[in-house]
Amino acid sequence: MTLKTFHFAGVASMNVTLGVPRIKEIINAAKKISTPIITATLECDDNLKTARMVKGRVEKTVLGEVAKSVRIVITSRSASIVVTLDMERIQASQLCINAQIVKEKILQSKIKLKEQHIKVLDARKLEIIPPGDKSKLHFELHSLKNKLPTVVVKGTNTVERAVINKTKKDNKEQYNLLVEGTGLQAVMGTEGIDGCKTTSNHIMEVRQVIGIEAARKCIIEEIKYTMASHGMTIDIRHMMLLADLMTFKGEVLGITRHGIQKMKDSVLMLASFEKTADHLFNASVNGRDDKIEGVSECIIMGIPMQIGTGILKVRQRVENAQQLSYGLDPIIQ
Amino acid sequence: MESEGKSPVKYTHCELDMSFLLGLSCAIIPFANHDHARRVLYQSEKHSQQAIGFSTTNPNIRVDTNTHQLYYPQRPLFRTMLSDSLGKPGYPLGHNGIVPRPEYFNGQCAIVAVNVHLGYNQEDSLVMNRSSLERGMFRSEHIRSYKAEVDNKEALGKKPKYEDTVNFGKMQSKIGRVDSLDDDGFPFIGANLQSGDIVIGKCAESGVDHSIKLKHTERGMVQKVVLSANDDGKNFAVVSLRQVRMPCLGDKFSSMHGQKGVLGFLESQENFPFTIQGIVPDIVINPHAFPSRQTPGQLLEAALGKGIACGGSLRYATPFSTVSVDDITDQLHRAGFSRWGNERVYNGRTGEMIHSLVFMGPTCYQRLTHMSEDKVKFRNTGPVHPLTRQPVADRKRFGGIKFGEMERDCLIAHGAAANLHERLFTLSDSSQMHICRKCKNIANVIQRPVPGGRKIRGPYCRFCESVEDIVRVNVPYGAKLLCQELFSMGISLKFETEVF
Question: I want to staple B36 with a disulfide (CB 3.0 to 4.6 A). Which of A52, A68, A159, B294 is the partner?
Fold first, then answer.
């Protein structure tokens, strides 16, 4: 396996980490990976138009894309920002956005505005009155005008972009959606996407959203995919063993010194792996016991290990063992 | 030019032969332009430097720490433009000119057959003809020198203490045998020394022995003893030992095309396949060495060499020259052989004709410095490290070979628990430790006074202050060391024992 290759997974301009860096990410159970991708199956997967609709719902849409204008209106009595939505564009992309939804989204966003500052004029127009004193009004207005177009009004903000992928199956063209980014729960809940068949390649996220067994399956699938893209096939049992080892404690533990620490509780084995002094000091402070069960401890203490041929010991049956008495034979019986 | 009597012709430009693109060690390689570049690199950078030949013209006068010399160097059959320039300068070169002496070339011409032979030449190994080795092919001698220094009393001027003066001399030594030394502390010329013998006897007046002893892998016959003084005011002595080495299994050889290989089997001459003329190969190389390495240069060299040996006129194999394959095949055909270098051979054991033709031809082979005698490691029990009581690491100090973590993982994967236990415990640092069963601590072995006046040495538990209930367990010395080191840090290990 070469060190780093980028494979265009069937779609142009789509990057997926492969090769040794990807295997490292999987085995270390990295909380943040470089190319998280969610593969979403559409409910209706042979229509390109519906696919586009779902893509629009999933992708992050900001206010600047759907607003016709964001204008500062200064009258003699008040100064405010008026946002006008471009209804034709919204209809064309089949999103259901209206001024009410925009108001809720602005309130949820990072801009510090309260309920009373935003007034819905009609289904297309919003008026926003900036808070604060009148002396800094101009500054407030302009800063709001710059920040408003970046408010996300539709879709999940952890999703970077979504791409429609065309696959050929049984001589029929099928579409599915490839979503770059995290946010599996939100994507699964989106209308038009079959949540039961959606999966991600980010193992920690799968563990969080779907559960530990799904995370185990995801580890196996990801390793299989990475190896297959380099033309190597491995028997599935090896990957099953690794996935079982990483998930047997109920959460996904990486094969790093933190993960191994949570997997095992033998002091000698952990001390012989990494961070020797720390483990020994902590163990002595807490008065730990170490049952010499694992291989490393048996080697340290010089006992044959208890796996393989060491699983059993042979006992010999001696029938009618002679009772020997030490000393002189009695003269008189 | 001027001796011819004509006026000198003026040149403005001169064209260099295309092979001058390459350096000396590369332009000696025949048909280098037919070989893959990596193989040409291996040959010119590595193998030509590691080949055994004639390294100096005055080997009898020099005392080097380690030299090799080939007994019978031979000039290769082919010539190249640049190898001709190694000859005596000033003589006109060409077919009648002086060719360089065979000592310039570090190899011998061997008859090479490209064939499988009983499966002993797989994976880059060679099968060689034992009879040709017994006749002296690829035999070489190796000279190793040992130096020792002693202070020169007259040069120093001041008189040091009488007991400290170190002299060369023969004395009864506990560290080795002194049978081969003369009275002046040096062995006589022609003495046969082996491992454990003393090479140079050096002793102080007080009786302390500073002699130099041969290590366990070295041996030889004394060739030269030199006594001299250097400018620092010290007398020094050098003893050279000579060893003759016939190729044995594991010695490395290489052709001139980067096809290195290790001797795999020595076959007797009568078992080899022979040709109609009775020619038997010296070296049998596996045909699998050629497809992935892409060195047809060796095959062309063998075909060209065959033609030259039969008296052909085509002799030059300069890289980038225009000797074409057609010329080589014509030369072979004129000499009466098959055009493509194949031969009809007959089985040496049964005498039957072998149905397929075998490619045979003379190729220049080199013997490389890597010999198995210098690398073989063996040990039963031997020196141990004083701190951990585990075997030491070097070959020089009679050490063992590391059985690392990955090898341990392989034995675990096989489930071979007893094998792993033996390898890492019994054969490494097995020892015993005393444990007190009452307080579960380690009990030390000390000498303590006993009522009655005597002192006994035995295990004693300091915590319980008693000797009852102390058991002895088998643990690796490393574990006992760990326990004592942790104890010194303030962490105490308690052991639970059970009767086995």
Answer: B294
